[in-house]
Structures are given as C-alpha cells and as structure tokens.
Amino acid sequence: MVASLMLDNALARLDGALGQLEAAARRRIDAERSRSNLETELALMQDDRARLAADLDGAMAKLREIAPHAAELADVPDEMPPGPPSFHWHNDFWTGCDALIHYCLVRDLKPRRVVEIGCGWSSLLLAQALAKNEAEGCPEVAVDQIEPYPRKELLEALPAHWDLHEAILQR
Predict the structure, then answer these.
(1) 61: burial class by Cβ within 10 Å (0-12, 13-18, 19+)?
(2) Phi, psi (rounded to 5 degrees) for 147
(3) C-alpha span between 78 and 57 (Å, rounded)
(4) What pLDDT, in 10s, does the model give residues 78-104?
(5) If you write DSSP's letter for every residue of 86-131 in order, what string do you get?
(6) In sequence order, which residues have a C-beta less than 8 Å from that of residue 29 and are 6 or more positions away?
(7) pLDDT of the residue at 7
(8) What are phi and psi of 27, to 5 degrees?
(9) Which of 42, 52, 59, 47 lies closest to 22 in space, CA to CA?
C-alpha cells in the first residue's frame, strides 16, 4: 500500500516537473522576446517542448515498466523491527520515492555489478532487491561500496561478499 502510494506520488511529481519545465521554457522565451523575433521564439518553444515531452514520456514509460516491483515492498515496516538492522520507511535518510524507484530499478535491471557511493539505509534496500533477483535465478552480484564514514551497525547486516572501501571521494 505504501509503495503504491509512493509510486502514485512519483507520477504526480513527474507531471508537476513537466509543468515547471514548461514554465521555465516560457520564461526563457519571454527573455528572448526582447532580443529576438517571433520565428526564433516559436523554434525555441518547439525545441523545448519536444525535448521535454520525449524525456517525460521515457520516464513515465520506465516508471510503468518497473511499477510491478513496488508491490514487493508492501511488507516493509514503517519503523525498525526488533533484531538486526533492516530497511524500514521511517529511517533517517533513504526513504520515499527515491528508495522505491531505486529498489524497482535494481529489480528490473538485474545488474551483475554494483558500485554504491554512500552506504547505509540504501544498502539494506539494495540487499533486498539483489536477494530477490538471486532467488529468481540471477547470479550473485559483485558489490563495491565506497563510504568514508560507514555506519557499521547497518553494514553488518549486509552480505559478507560485499566489499567496503572506506574512502573520501569529494574534497
């Protein structure tokens, strides 16, 4: 139920984003109006609309394609259950549409190798998606995690074959 609501929210957010992008294109055209003629304005508008429509249509198509995997998260609890750390929706970082789409994409793409930059709650959800893929016959995935300040209590719940690299990538 939560996953379905989040997917609906993601679709609504994409629709809202298209409206914002169209508004930005109109503002750009308005700015050009003082320096340009009508023909240039129309060309700019057509170019922006075509690009935005293609991107939005692709994003919406991908969301519809991966949506069936969202139902797999129906039993994810809101709060952390007793026992070892596990993904739950009210964690302190990785939640909402980002987490939902991340899970669904991993399930859909079935990667053979993952490089995760920044680890923690997202890693727990990644482990769930990869375990589900493996249960369906996919090979074990090589996972390299890069995290300068790992939360050991979260990462202890991950598969032993995952490699953690404690490194700072940004300076």
Answers:
(1) exposed
(2) -150, 120
(3) 32
(4) 999 999 999 999 998 988 889 999 999
(5) ---TT-SSS-HHHHHHHHHHHHHH--SEEEEES-SHHHHHHHHHHH
(6) 41, 44, 45
(7) 60
(8) -65, -40
(9) 52
Interatomic CA distance for residues 64 and 62, integer angstroms: 5
- Give the bridge partners for 113, in sequence order: 142
Amino acid type, 55: D
Query: How many other CB atoms sit within 10 Å of the CB of residue 162?
Result: 19
pLDDT of residue 20: 65
Rounded-to-10 torsion of CA 83, 84, 85, 87 = -70
* C-alpha torsion sign, points 90, 143, 83, 120: negative
pTM check: above 0.85: no
Backbone φ and ψ for 163, nearest 5 degrees, come out as: -105, 125
Return the structure tokens found at 52: 């935005």
Q: What tens digit of pLDDT does each residue of 16-72 get?
A: 655 665 666 666 656 555 555 556 656 666 666 676 666 777 888 888 999 999 999
C-beta separation of 63 from 11 below 8 A:
yes
Token pair 């293609």 in the structure block, residue: 54
